[in-house]
Amino acid sequence: MPLDRRHVLKAALTGAAWLSAPMLQAKAGLHVVVIGGGVGGATMARLLAKAGLRVSLVEPHPAYHTCFLSNLYLGGLRDFDSLTFGYQALAGAGVQILQTTATAVDRLAKTVTLGSGEVLAYDRLVLSTGIDFVEGALPGWTPEAAQIMPHAFKSPDQTRLLRDQIDAMPQGGVFAMIAPPAPYRCPPSPYERVSMLAHRLKQTNPTAKILIFDPKDHFTKQTLFENAWGKYYNGMISWIGPDFGAEDLEIRPDAMEVVIDGETVAVDVCNAIPAQQAGRIAALAGVTDASGWAPVDAFTLQSRIDPQIHVLGDSAAAGDMPKSAFAAHGHAYAAAAALLAEAAGVARTDPSYANICWSLLAPNDAVKLSESFHPTPEKFQSDSLIISAPDESPQTRSETAAEGLSWYEQITTDIFG
Prior knowledge:
Layout: H1 5-9, E1 31-35, H2 39-50, E2 54-58, E3 63-65, H3 70-74, E4 84-86, H4 88-92, E5 96-98, E6 102-106, E7 111-114, E8 119-121, E9 124-127, E10 131-133, H5 156-168, E11 174-178, H6 189-204, E12 209-213, H7 222-232, E13 237-240, E14 249-252, E15 257-260, E16 263-266, E17 269-272, E18 276-278, H8 280-284, E19 294-295, E20 309-311, E21 316-317, H9 325-344, E22 353-362, E23 365-375, E24 380-387, H10 394-416
Parallel strand pairs: 1-2, 1-9, 2-5, 9-20, 11-12, 11-17, 12-13, 19-21
Antiparallel strand pairs: 3-4, 6-7, 7-8, 10-18, 14-15, 15-16, 22-23, 23-24
């Protein structure tokens, strides 16, 4: 069924809408600082500014490039500019855009130190800082190594670098992906990426090989992906899991080698995606735990370590809920509604959540997974899960692909105007 805005946003709280600016007059001076201008942060900033709060968004980049749908760029099905969104609409809605980094958070003083040296005071802080990588989790990987073996999981420059490397790969060459251990951003993304790269290579480099070295013994939508790889890509893709040594990996960027269980494999391009954790500023703020993620209250997205801080999106430890753009958008609506209810002195409405994830297997052939969740005192609890069937018709798959694109256009319009 085609998605309209109401359908897309039904999983995101609409509670913010009934809290009007006049109800907030007593809190008109409330200053909310949002760090991170991605899906969660930009949505939260827009909702709060629309409700009449003073909002400052700290974001070092002049535009946001969506990681979601970037696999279509890698596959040659979408141009890079179509993934890029500016902050002009947020500024027009009253959000103060501070194009700089946040370097420190003083929770006692309730201040954020900016890269310029300026110190910004807040009444409430929102961290929507995405992911960072765990040092030492993948032997041989360093931030410098990512310029040779790109992760392409959080930077537009990395995504373009990986596509350039794919285009320069010799005929019959070997592309290797080091898939990350769970939890990580957008669970199906590595496998959609492989599908899209295989689509591109099938046209430009049909004798190339794709190797997936995966420390996990299974991955989301595995049957659907593997069926598609057999149908469309004629033996080009091989998945190598822990049973075949993929729990023991090392990369050697200078030599362009992957070492698996002691055996050296020469590759031409390597997409090395290390283990992930919350964005660095969340750790600097002291709101992460031993897992590397930030524990939050599932009703309000407030940090369990400091309730004056909300943590949204990928950085949050969200129980059963995966890390995705859809999830981050819902987090922002829930957190905004909770904050506005508190500011207005009215009762909070308990949120409900959902996640829908579309994955493109080949042009006009997509599958999806949809799941609903409810908050509990312990975590985000899964309620139901629906996934595409392996035997769906081509028409259904084509409609699912169109539905995913419709969602993308609507969610980016909702966030960035």
